[in-house]
Task: structure prediction
Amino acid sequence: MNLFLLIVLLGFANHLATSIITESEITRESRAFLERLHQRAVARLHSSAHIEAWSEEDYRAPRWHAWAELITRKLSYLHGCHLCAGTWVGLVMAAFVPPIVSSGLVGWALTGLAIKGVGHIVLVVHKYLEAKQHEHEAFAKQPHPKPDRLDEDDDRPSYYGWQARSDHTHWSNRPLSDTTLDALKRALNPKDGK
Result:
């Protein structure tokens, strides 16, 4: 099999595996568990028992609580971020294919990043089409006035005798709305959108 085709196919598999890790119902419980664990670590880090023991100027949380907060934050982010999870999935996939550039650690890393690159392109296209679909559905739910009947002396273009309104354009010709752009930003940066 051609190595380029193999990287493209692995990129699609990378997108699928990453979506399962970061978005699917199967891993929802583990994402919720990591989020609860992180919230407990933050609460422990800023608990009143530690603050009362020290004056405001001298207060420093125990080192273990700071490390626990950092580790749970990173694990929670890794489990919910397409870029992070997809990079690790791509690196694991790269261990099973020949390197694309050189051998050794550099070839493995570049192959993993190439797999993730294709997977991320698939993610961006998928989220763009999803946002356009949501925009189209929202547009279809809006009430649209009936077109005016074409007068005989009117020379504007018409379709089957009905006048096309100039204030409505076909959904595919409109520029991206703020709703679509916000949906794309939330899809590509899940932590920023919340």
Remarks:
- Helices lie at 3-23, 28-45, 48-53, 63-80, 82-94, 104-141, 178-188.
- The beta strands are 158-159, 162-163.
